Each structure stands twice: as C-alpha cells, then as structure tokens.
C-alpha cells in the first residue's frame, strides 16, 4: 500500500516474522502506539518503518459485518455526541477505557473491541477462530447455526459466532468462547474440546475438584480447562461454584434463575402483611426485614451498585458482584437485559 505518511511502499506483515527477537512486539512510527503479535503492522522492508491500522486508515472487508470495518480511535470520534463511550457488539462491554475499536462508518454505532475481533488460537479447537456474522456465512439457512461445544442452537438475534475457516463448519458461541472465572482455581478456565486437549487419552479426562472421570465425553461433559496448568473442572462443579456466587449458565431468557434457586417467594407469600397488636388493640405493620437491602447475588453485602442497561437500571447487587457480572458478560439478573455498565449507588 501507498500512504502519504511514508515515502516507500508498505506491506502488511506478521510481526513474529519481522520482530522475532522481540516476541512480535512493535511500535507504530507515526503515533508511537505499541502493539503485540496479534496486531499486524504495515511494514517497510527498506527502512523498517511500521504503521498501525488506525494510522493507515485501512478498512478491512470481513465476515464479521456486512460493511468494511476500520480500526481506529473510537472514543475520539464519538467524544462529542457520546462522551467517548462505545459498546462492543460481542462482549457488550462499554469501551471508554479502550481507545480503539473496529468501527463501521456506515452503521456508525457498530463497534467490536480488539480482543473480540482478532483471530485467536483457542483451547476449544485446533485451528484459529475468527469472528463472523453467520447471516453472511450461512445464507442458505438464514444464518442459523449450532455451537460445536455446547451444542445449543442460535437464537434469532444471535448472528455472531467464532468460526474456523479451515474446517468451514466449526462454530463456537461467545458463551463458550469467553473465559470462566471461578473461586475454585486461580487461573481463568475455557470450555475445551477434550478430544483435542487430551488426544493421547482419546478425549478422556478427570475433574480436578470432584475427581469424576469422563472417558467418553460429549458436548455436555467437555471440561472447563486451564491453559496454564491443565486444571480441569466439570460442568457440575463449575455450575455449583458459580451458583454460590449467584451466576447462571442457563441461556434461556425466559427462565428466572433466582426463582429456580428459591430466592424468590412463591405467589401469594406477600398477600398477607405481617402485623402485630399493641396493648390498646391497634394493629401495626411489622417493619420489613433488612434482608431486602442485601445483594441478591451473595446475600451478604448491601446493595450498593446499579446495573445500567439502556435508559434504565436495577439496584440489586453489591459492587463486587455487579463487577463480576459485567466482566463475565452475564445479563442483568432481574430483567436479563445486556449489561452496558455498572455504577456505585449512594442512598441519601
């Protein structure tokens, strides 16, 4: 490519090949931004000049969206009308702290953060996975697809998946793609295909928490796997540890996890208001229990955080639990709407 920022022609290269001695780390010679091996620079073979995609202003044609995407500083572009805030279409995180995103000039409000967009080697598969819009990839079936890890079918609005271009029909839902944070282990865990991770055992593996053995694993019995120390957790242990913190693995929006766990009372329980009678025979209502002010997640700390979604929010949890919900990409525990951001709640 040619650019007015440099006199020679630039080529997009793999930084691991050019800067092997630095583990693929490099710096843009125009904006001085540093990048790792994931981001490919536009490189000059004559004078080793490097340019990042944001400075090069190159739009990439990708299967992740119907229009070309441009990697650029999203918060600078949207600062005037949105206060620098933008939301990733995949993980739903608000990216005010992350400067750059893959942005669509046509749709304006379409953004994908760098960690969600760029292809990665993932423990769920032997090849790299890239983000795709399944409505563009599977036109013959209206974009419908199945996750090859959990086996669940996509819902009408779930068109983004992580796809293997080499296998062509291997797809992973963002739920299985995202890491699991659990108090049972110090590292993050990923849902993994044990036939790839433990090929020498024909896919067999053992849970390192309950010691349950899985000799012929299926979709439902694939492990949550640690890439660092090969720690494995079965679905039951992962679910139990999460429910202790108040999270749900369920993908069904019509289910209310708090009622399933018995934290909501059955209809009619509040039909009668507790009362007491004074010495003079007057009937007084008993003050409500202070448990109503407790976090519905951990049931210990006070409710001091509001979960924001759209123009509304729910104050239902403590700050720590709300932060974990947001980081996990879980929906609001009250209305199941995607969490945009979390704020501290102060009652005057």
Entry summary:
This protein has 10 helices and 23 strands. With 348 residues, the protein is α+β, with helices and mostly antiparallel strands.
Describe this structure in words.
Mean pLDDT is 75; it is low at 244-274 and 283-290. It contains 10 helices and 23 strands. It has helices spanning 15-18, 53-56, 74-82, 114-117, 134-137, 174-177, 194-197, 235-245, 257-260, 319-328; strands at residues 11-12, 26-27, 34-35, 42-43, 50-51, 59-60, 69-73, 100-103, 111-113, 120-121, 128-133, 160-164, 170-172, 190-191, 205-206, 213-214, 224-225, 232-233, 275-277, 283-285, 305-309, 312-317, 341-344. A hairpin with an 8-residue loop joins strand 6 (59-60) and strand 7. 31% of the residues are buried.
Q: Largest sheet, order of strands side by side?
A: 6-7-8-9
The total beta strand count reads 23
The largest pleated sheet is described as: 4 strands, antiparallel
Category from helices, strands and their pairing: alpha+beta
Helix segment tally: 10
Measured between the Cα atoms of the first and last residue, the distance is 59 Å
Apparent shape: globular
Helical content class: 10-25%
Radius of gyration: 25 Å
Q: How much is the average pLDDT?
A: 75
Low-confidence stretches: 244-274, 283-290
Q: How much β-strand is present in the residues?
A: 15-25%
Keywords:
348 residues, alpha+beta, 4-stranded antiparallel β-sheet, 10 helices
Q: Which helices and strands occur, and which strands form pairs?
A:
Elements: E1 11-12, H1 15-18, E2 26-27, E3 34-35, E4 42-43, E5 50-51, H2 53-56, E6 59-60, E7 69-73, H3 74-82, E8 100-103, E9 111-113, H4 114-117, E10 120-121, E11 128-133, H5 134-137, E12 160-164, E13 170-172, H6 174-177, E14 190-191, H7 194-197, E15 205-206, E16 213-214, E17 224-225, E18 232-233, H8 235-245, H9 257-260, E19 275-277, E20 283-285, E21 305-309, E22 312-317, H10 319-328, E23 341-344
Antiparallel strand pairs: 1-4, 2-3, 4-5, 6-7, 7-8, 8-9, 10-11, 11-12, 12-13, 14-17, 15-16, 17-18, 19-20, 21-22, 21-23
